[in-house]
Specification:
Helix content of chain A: under 10%
Order of helices and strands of chain B: EEEEEEEEEEE
Radius of gyration of chain A: 13 Å
Helix content of chain B: under 10%
Largest sheet of chain A: 7 strands, mixed
Structural class of chain B: mainly beta
Strand content of chain A: over 45%
Largest interface: A-B, 22 and 19 residues
Number of strands of chain A: 11
Oligomer: heterodimer
Shape of chain A: globular
Largest sheet of chain B: 6 strands, mixed
Radius of gyration of chain B: 13 Å
Distance between the termini of chain B: 41 Å
Number of helices of chain A: 0
Shape of chain B: globular
Number of strands of chain B: 11
Order of helices and strands of chain A: EEEEEEEEEEE
């Protein structure tokens, strides 16, 4: 079974904090993605990576950065969290098909 | 770039009836079309996918059809059950493993007993 795991299911952070969301996949996939999901807006792509140390901006990269030091791990970083980054964050990994993690629900106070 | 439209946004069906969700895409080069089911509080799960060299694919009560000429594809769920209640997303991409998926906006399906 493909497994995409995310480090936290729920997170509460304060405005201005630096936030790390971790994602790990066990299928040796080269492609990994970070999305955010908000009611009425569907799934929006933040960043993606085609290989180790490679990253490309998605549709809404502002306020975020990413890190891919190892093939299996893709991290999303909120440099200075703001209340408008309160959302559900979904990591995905893709080989011939794309699999999602369970999501991290982030609340920024 | 690719644009995927999904209809309807909500769908209410009686248990045992069929449900159909339709998606259209804009880029004729797209060749991979997955469907995801998302239950409350969980990440989307792949339920079925189809590639452009196939017109229809079935898996038990779920089927997907693809019309490349018209650039639309549909998800069919037969004999719906309460556990089919969820949000369903369609998506499209070009290429194989390297293509980014473009998602539809989602359909909330409610199956009433």
């Amino acid at each position: 079974d493909v497994k995409v795991t995310q480090s936290s299911r729920y997170l509460v952070k304060r405005t201005g904090e630096k936030v790390f969301l971790e994602c790990v996949q066990d299928m040796d996939h080269e492609n990994m993605f970070w999305y955010r999901q908000d009611p009425g807006l569907g799934l929006r792509l933040i960043y993606f990576s085609y290989d180790v140390k490679m990253k490309e901006k998605g549709d809404i990269p502002e306020g975020y950065s990413v890190s891919r030091e190892k093939k299996e791990r893709f991290s999303l970083i909120l440099e200075s969290a703001s209340t408008n980054q309160t959302s559900m964050y979904l990591c995905a990994s893709r080989g011939k098909t794309q699999y999602f993690g369970p999501g991290t629900r982030l609340l920024v106070l | 770039g690719e644009n995927v439209e999904q209809h309807p946004s909500t769908l209410s069906v009686q248990e045992g009836d069929s449900a159909v969700i339709k998606c259209t895409y804009s880029d004729s080069a797209s060749n991979y079309f997955p469907w995801y089911k998302q239950e409350l509080g969980k990440g989307p799960q792949l339920i079925i996918d189809i590639r452009s060299n196939v017109g229809e694919k079935k898996d038990q009560r779920i089927a997907v059809t693809l019309n490349k000429t018209a650039k639309h594809f549909s998800l069919h769920i037969t004999e719906t059950q309460p556990e089919d209640s969820a949000v369903y997303f369609c998506a499209a991409s070009k290429g194989d493993s390297w293509g980014k998926l473009q998602f539809g906006a989602g359909t909330q399906v409610v199956v009433t007993p």
